[in-house]
Amino acid sequence: MACRRGPATPMLALLLALAAPACGAAVADDFGYVRSASQAQGPGPDPGVVVVDARPLAECRERSLAGARCLPAGDLLGPQRRLPAARDLLWLLGTAGLAGHETVLVVGQDPTARDFVAGVLYAAGQRRVQILTEPVARALASGAAAGPGRERGLVREAVFEAPMRDRLLVLRDELRAMRPAPMLLDGRSDREYWGEVPRAVRTGHLPGAISLPALQLRAALDAADGRGAVVPDGSPVAYAHDAFEGFAYLSLLVAANGVAARLYAEGWAEWAADGSLPADAVGYPDPGPVRAGGPPAASVTPSVDAPGPVAWPPREALVAAATALALAAFAAGWWLSGRRAAS
Questions:
Q1: How far apart are CA 256 and CA 229, in angstroms?
Q2: CA terminus-to-terminus distance, the chain
Q3: Of 137, 130, 141, 149, nearest to 60 (Cα)?
Q4: pTM above threshold 0.85
Q5: Which fold has domain 31-165?
Q6: Which CATH superfamily is domain 169-283 in?
Q7: In 85-127, where does DSSP find H-type helix?
Q8: Block mean pLDDT (10 aa), the chain, length 343
């Protein structure tokens, strides 16, 4: 898909004024989008093409493109949507029967989940990754060969041997130390970029980052007229909210628009969690509950030294205790009176 120059937002206008006027590099031959499964395989189907279905396992197992291997996006994420360690990731790809030398066609229904799986495969070193823009359900309805998807094994079927494209990834401390500071692209929504929608402990964006929402790139990708998105030149560092959205954003930048982007995978969620890191348009979400049609309710934090509310026992327990005390007092009085009479 051809890229297009021309400002779509004031922030992009500033970015593009600093960038070279020529269009960026063409889409990489080893990473791109296709509009149909037949286009991915061409007139003479490549026996090395492996279909990877990024949908939930139950949907993939029930019906997918013929020969598809099920690799749900959730299998590539840990708690809080964290990425696994590189060793664990490569082992997991081996359980799906991938060795890294195949041409992979990633399909799915949810575009973000599909693009996330494609981005991870590309960064892991998969030789060639193509992404089917057509949803699986539509492809099957239009007559694509179908069959049940194959679930990945409990042990490795193949050893993933392709070298990782680790130069695509930037760590937080590496990003902090970069001099001069790189061009930064923020793939979140405009409202998140400006701090209106909180999803982390702080709102805002990385210092100097340019807003280029993934939704804008996806709309251009899906446009019927084939017009490309407005994208920058250079080699920016891209980020989104977290790794899940970040790798999907990387796919949109590199595969669809030929941007020579690198990815800060952990994104704003990790950056915002460290209060010592600088940010622009910083805000702090109110922790109190939000009432419909009104401001957040007041949140009162009790003092550590203040006593808590008294928890009184039930009425029945109080009556029983009073009765026991009365009987004990009567017994004590009777015993004392007997001792006085004896003396």
A1: 9
A2: 114
A3: 149
A4: no
A5: Oxidized Rhodanese; domain 1 (3.40.250)
A6: Rhodanese-like domain (3.40.250.10)
A7: 86-95, 111-124
A8: 42 35 49 85 59 97 96 93 92 96 96 98 97 95 94 95 96 96 97 95 96 95 71 93 98 96 97 96 78 44 42 60 69 62 58
